Amino acid sequence: MTNPSKDLKETExxxxxxxxxxxxxxDALRHIGEQLKDEALKVKFLEESLTRAEFxxxxxxxxxxxGVHDVNEHGTTAxxxxxxxxxxxxxxxxxxxxxxxxxxxIEDAAREQYENAITTDPALPLPIRQLLARQAxxxxxxxxxxxxxxxxxxxxx
Length: 157
Fold this sequence. Notes:
CATH architecture: Up-down Bundle
CATH class: Mainly Alpha
Radius of gyration: 17 Å
């Protein structure tokens, strides 16, 4: 029989890692969106930044419902590096294509974190697993949007 407190700790750990990734994505997508020259892409990135904040709120609410009250995450070191790299590229006159390459790398990390949370934690309750799967599908969809935009800009160059 599984230990409920052990299961809760595993679930909390999995959700905290996803939350950190969402913080990274929220900040990076906002920053990249502000740097993009293409207005339509700029709007998509800024909207997606807000979506990541909503996803984070959903997961934090789940943790609160489970009795975890200290959900004060700050993102990851990798996220800080990605944001700094995107900022440097923009300052050096990086094109939208260059910024989209960075965004795709950030989205790859988000996809991987969701997959890890869903597949490696057998203790995840079904409602949490379903929420993560819904969010992961959205992240995958945005990743595809970023990749398609990057490809379009590659072909135009």
